[in-house]
Amino acid sequence: MTLENVNSPLKLNNGVEIPCVGYGTFRTDPAVTAQAVKDAIQAGFRHIDTAMIYHNEEGVGQGIKASGVDRKNLFITSKLWNTDRGYESTKEAFQKSLDRLGLDYLDLYLIHWPANEKQFGPEASRINAETWRAMEELYEAGKIRAIGLSNFMPHHVAELMKTAKIKPMVDQIEVHPGWSHSEEIKKIQAMNIQVEAWGPLGGQGATVLTNPTMEKIAAAHGKTTAQVSLRWVIQQGVLPLPKSVHVNRIKENMDVFDFELSDAEMAEISALKDLGGQCKDPDEVDF
Ligand SMILES: NC(=O)c1ccc[n+]([C@@H]2O[C@H](COP(=O)([O-])OP(=O)(O)OC[C@H]3O[C@@H](n4cnc5c(N)ncnc54)[C@H](OP(=O)(O)O)[C@@H]3O)[C@@H](O)[C@H]2O)c1
């Protein structure tokens, strides 16, 4: 399928359509979130990514209302934070997210990070399985149109699938030049799970956007390094979630459908290393 703009649909494994680029809200100050989300929607974004831990779900909800766009025409994602894992607490946390957003359903709800063995030892798998069971029930009850994972590497997904009734529709992982996760992307895609890229520009403090290789490729196409980074993500069949609170950058990040990177350029970008970003190993985090 040819993607023509940020709202060109990708089809998830349950048939639900998701706009192929989403608007990120991590580190968006709650005080400016409503305005930023309204700006993003009015610029044309229909897909918004938030999370309980961003402490800005209220602002996202206000921005949605202020945008004047019918909620049915938006795709809204939130995520279950780590302290809310478990069967009962997942259901409670989901309802609290809905209440803060002022919505009566979500398009996508994700487990933000897998419980890992470093923190939970042999209990980690059971905690993830119980959390997923609650997600499945919320999905079956029609409160969420699609359910998925975040920061689950292929081995975490495989472990979850031993007990899952419903296959996750999405896995959102960190992907940007310098942290390409190429093998993991292919493995997750082979399971028919849509990969989303968080930090697709490298996030705060990264050197992706000033890297000389990125600058050379951007100049060759008359685009910015941010646009090249997003294009590199999209051409791998991955769905990027760029965040900006500036209207000019929001529009710049949408304008990535009038050029194509060659196979050589894709490979050159994929080979870049050490450009910063969070680069966290989900098996090693202690939060
Ligand atoms: N699942 C997870 O664990 C997880 C973790 C992190 C993030 N996420 C999601 O993924 C989204 C994106 O990740 P991220 O916010 O960490 O990083 P990002 O989108 O890669 O980068 C955002 C940074 O780049 C700047 N920026 C945006 N557009 C730009 C442009 N065209 N030119 C130059 N600078 C630009 C932004 O500044 P301004 O805002 O000042 O423009 C901000 O500092 C998040 O917002 C969140 O929704 C998920």
UniProtKB/TrEMBL annotation:
Residues 27-272 form the NADP-dependent oxidoreductase domain. InterPro entries: AKR, Aldo/ket_reductase_CS, NAD(P)_OxRdtase_dom_sf, NADP_OxRdtase_dom. It holds the Pfam family Aldo_ket_red. It comes from the Bacteria. SUPFAM superfamilies: NAD(P)-linked oxidoreductase. Keywords: NADP, Oxidoreductase. PROSITE patterns: ALDOKETO_REDUCTASE_1, ALDOKETO_REDUCTASE_2, ALDOKETO_REDUCTASE_3. Belongs to the aldo/keto reductase family. This is Aldo/keto reductase. It comes from Limosilactobacillus alvi. The lineage of its organism: Bacteria, Bacillati, Bacillota, Bacilli, Lactobacillales.
